[in-house]
Amino acid sequence: MEKVIYDKKNGLWYELQGDYCLLCLKLPEGEQQPVGLWGQRHLRYIKQNRKVFYLNLLTSGKLNGYLTDLDKQAEDMFFRLVKQMAEREDVTEKLKADNQMKWVGRMNNIRSRAKEVINNELIFS
After folding, report:
1. In the prediction, which pLDDT does 28 show?
2. What is the pTM of this model?
3. Which Pfam families match (predicted)?
4. What is the pLDDT of residues 115-124, one digit of tens each?
């Protein structure tokens, strides 16, 4: 007997396993794009805290696209915030040339605050 059976009535495929016919379920083949750091953080958050939303995205095949879009938004927002904060606080190339340690400290502070904003606005919401 065949291992895979097609039911013409409902248009579904079944796989024979032992005495049972189990429905063959596959997620649609989508364009697999790599998910970056921000997308991975958001994925971990929705898996733990928003399970129904996660399962809806997963079963509809939209999870990867959603995460790559969010990752791109977060990355763009991060660079924009760092640039704006650095300009506002006068952290320039001149400061970098004059006092490298001060520049590094201030840039680390700016990046830390930008990460905090992104986490609150996009990742953990």
Report:
1. 57
2. 0.74
3. TnpV
4. 999 999 999 9
